Amino acid sequence: MSKWADYCISAVRYNNTGNHIEKVQVCEDYGKTLGNFEEWLRSNVISSLDNNKTFVTILMNEGGSCSRGVDVHGVNVNGKKYIRTDEDQTTQDNLGDLPRF
Fold it and tell me: Does residue 54 form part of some domain?
């Protein structure tokens, strides 16, 4: 496995309306291995994106292996930053079909 990004996101927790991320499960990508999973607040992801850190989603497979998902972007809409797997200009976070926790 080659390095996909600085960090990998495997699951997401949205707020009650489902529009904004509260937390994600994230691990560092070391290239051949992944670090331990931690829960990060939305603000930590945005801060890291602002500091040029890269993120991808990952999909956990049966047996514990994982596969690369898609790139994660910080998108500015009307002066507010959103976390998205596309660069759409809607005013909500969107990490696709990641599992919820």
Answer: yes
Long-range contacts of the stretch 35-42 (C-beta < 8 A, 24+): 37/10, 42/83, 42/93
Domain count, the chain: 1
- Token pair, residue 8, equals 């990998």
β-pairing, 38-41 with 21-28? antiparallel
Report how far residue 84's alpha carbon sits from residue 70's, in angstroms, rounded to the nearest whole number.
Answer: 10
The predicted-structure confidence for 34-83, as pLDDT tens digits, reads as follows 999 999 999 999 999 999 999 999 998 888 889 999 999 999 999 999 99
> The whole model's pTM is what?
0.94
